[in-house]
Amino acid sequence: MVAPQPPHELTPAEQVQGVVDRAAVAQRPWARLPVRERAAALDRAAAALEPDAGELAELLAAESGKPLGQAEFEVGGAIALLRGNAEEGRRLGGRVLPTEGNTGTEYDLATTRREPLGVIAAILPFNFPVELFVEKCAAALVAGNAVVAKPPPDAPLAIERFRLALVGAGVPADAIAAVHGGADVGAALAGADGVAAVSLTGSTAAGVAVAKAAAPTLRRLHLELGGNNACIVLADADLDLLVAEAVRGRLMMNGQACSATKRIIVAAALHDELADRLASAAAEQVVGPARARETTVGPLINPDAAARVAAQVGTAVSQGGRLAAGADGADGAYFAPAVLAGLPPESDIARDEEVFGPVFSLIPAATPERALEIANASEYGLMASVFSADLELAWALAERLEAGGVVINGSDNYRPPVIPFGGVKLSGVGREGLGYTIEELSREKTIVLRRFRRRTVDGGLGG
Question: Given this model, what pLDDT does residue 140 score?
Fold first, then answer.
């Protein structure tokens, strides 16, 4: 059993440096352990958490507003990620470099190995807190780093249970530490002396602030930031498939996912039919408490978030959009799914205004070329998608979309652990995923043994 989480206090910003200092001390002996021992600790943590998965999902749903079925999926996925990172750590290797091809180095032996960076600052979001805690911290730990995590103030509880499981499994407490608080604590952590890298999932504004804080020390940045994902729908698209994928892709975590389908750029001839179909789908959603099994859309993370979405919808209507389904106001932290139709390409949310809530935004486009132009006009570039029966055309659009990844005939809210997930432009720096996060949070060192290869071998084997 995993011990219940004790109450935790907010960390004064002036105490963050001390936490980082202790993590730096703990990191050295942790890194000296054989990787098999570090990997075994991740496996033991997974085994300790597994019997409590249902309880942890209830806790995650209660604190984040995530519908219970999604919370169960996240907790199960996070436990699997612990084991997956253990396996990735066990096969972490280097290279033998081709020195024989250069004059003067023919008899040298040059190899590479992966080494830890040191102390990693992991700054976590509220929307997928457990998954991203494990994504960052398990990879960092198995590579030999120490971690100081900053959980989101609105959803710290399930993360703490996972952290305590790692400590119970043998990770030194100072090597998997946590600090709690708001933006001041995050800024203190990102700028603390001794932090080798900052891995942050959050808003683009937060990423830019971290980059500025990190600039004087040139510490490594690993940033997964905002997105205004474009879904291009061509005239020959399968609308049944599209609606099913769009509903899943947009409404996950109540629309509060960086990689949600935020802009649907649709062939003008299909626009009205698609608006009607999405309006029907929106009306079918069950809005309610996150822990109620029948709920498909729970509350947003707090009432301010819901009010912000309502204001964005109002602005979109004032800029020429039409509210085809849903209300234009919030009910506390709840915001019922809405459909905005006929958005002009120059409207805020058709370009750079990310709506973090359950809103479908439809932008008509006369041609595939125009759809591509609208999609790429955004400052963001996380994920994108294309729906079409013409796979050659869809592939051509995928190659030209300015995004970290593109899905054809499926939701762009696509993140299995085996793909390198991340964005371009203001959507971030670096990639996450099994193996990819370890590479981001470790470094390659070259070790050379000069004149190691003998030119001749006594006993007749020379030449």
Answer: 98
User: Catalytic annotation on 369?
Assistant: no
Whether 219 and 243 share a structural domain: no
For residues 46 and 79, the answer to whether their CB atoms sit within 8 Å is yes
Mean pLDDT of 416-442: 97
**Structural domain total, the chain:** 2
- Can 137 be counted among the known catalytic residues? no
Q: Is the domain of 44 the same as that of 105?
A: yes
Given 72, 231, 258, 432, the catalytic residue: 258
Residue with tokens 């995928």: 398
Domain match, 154 and 266 both: no
Specify whether the CB–CB gap between 380 and 227 falls below 8 A.
yes
Range(s) of the domain holding residue 400? 230-408
Token representation of residue 261:
């389908």
Nearest-10 Cα torsion for 170, 124, 65, 279: -140
Q: What is the pTM of this model?
A: 0.95
Is 64 inside any structural domain?
yes
**8-state DSSP, 358:** S
Query: For the segment 48-82, what is each residue's pLDDT rounded down to a tens digit?
Result: 999 999 999 999 999 999 999 999 999 999 999 99
Choosing from 74, 131, 135, 224, which is the catalytic residue? 224
